[in-house]
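Note to self: the last two entries modelled the partners one at a time, which told us nothing about the interface. This time every component goes in together.
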Amino acid sequence: MKNKKVAVTGGLGFIGSHLIGKLNENNDVVIIDNQASGNIKNIEDLDFTKIDTDFSDITQANLELIFEDVDYVFHMAAVTSVPLSVNDPIKSNEVNITGTLKVLEAAKNCEVKKLILSSSSAVYGETETVPINEKSPINPLSPYAVTKATGELYCRVYSEIYELSTIALRYFNVFGPKQDPKSQYAAVIPIFIDKLLKNESPLIYGDGKQTRDFVSVKQVVEANILAAKSNKTGSYNIGLGKSTSINQLFEMIKDIMGKDISPIYENERTGEIKHSVADISKAKSIGYTPKNEFKEELAETVEWFSSKLKS
Ligand SMILES: NC(=O)c1ccc[n+]([C@@H]2O[C@H](COP(=O)([O-])OP(=O)(O)OC[C@H]3O[C@@H](n4cnc5c(N)ncnc54)[C@H](O)[C@@H]3O)[C@@H](O)[C@H]2O)c1
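The predicted structure of the combined assembly is written out below.
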């Protein structure tokens, strides 16, 4: 993508800041982020002559003014924590549903070329099907998942009745540098790194054979740019399309760090999904073919967290 004006809501967060790093090379970017969980430090190494930052809350901002000459809107701002959504469903509804509706409405009124919504594999809930494809029914099991499913439905309706081009990307477990170690998604990665740095045994809930689809933030950024350029609408799984068990993940991190420590196994957590893997065939139709560089990307992540956690 070149010489475009793009808006990124939630641009100071983990995924948003990586997307901005990529877009910043050739485009003008406006960020709308109230720093609820993100931080301006995430983009401190970028070229600020091509970045405008608006620290407004998406539910309060004058989005029509901000989107006036914007080509693409990447909508990532959200209450991203499942536990937070359980403790305060009204708040997650306000930011993730009302906020998304306001973003869509402004994008429609400003005639932006396309809106790309960050959705989540959480919309599927517990499922028997592995790998899971987009034809599977949605089954949200938390207020957070309800908000993501509703955001997708609004996107679909805005495309159908207002002709605003939209696309929703259902991310699986995203990992990479700058991730908040407290995030529930791939938080297991920074937790393992932290424990191993301290030469302590990390906890693994259950037998460690539960699997996840860990996808690097680099691939997710790529998916967003492909989604913007494509003329497709609808919902797309964005994972690596490969499953990794928690035991395998631990072994890999241990190897990268050169440690010889065993984990402690605890009782399985109630409600935890046993297996989650994306079928990414549909995403291939927008050109998404993630590189299988899992080990290298994991090593980069280990290096980043190690230097952060040591300092
Ligand atoms: N990280 C993952 O594995 C993952 C998986 C599935 C979906 N997602 C989705 O991807 C998107 C980005 O996630 P992330 O991991 O970068 O999370 P993050 O918490 O790092 O980023 C979210 C950003 O939104 C901002 N924000 C929150 N409320 C806001 C508001 N009211 N107004 C303006 N800004 C607000 C935060 O300050 C933060 O910078 C989210 O929509 C999340 O639900 C992430």
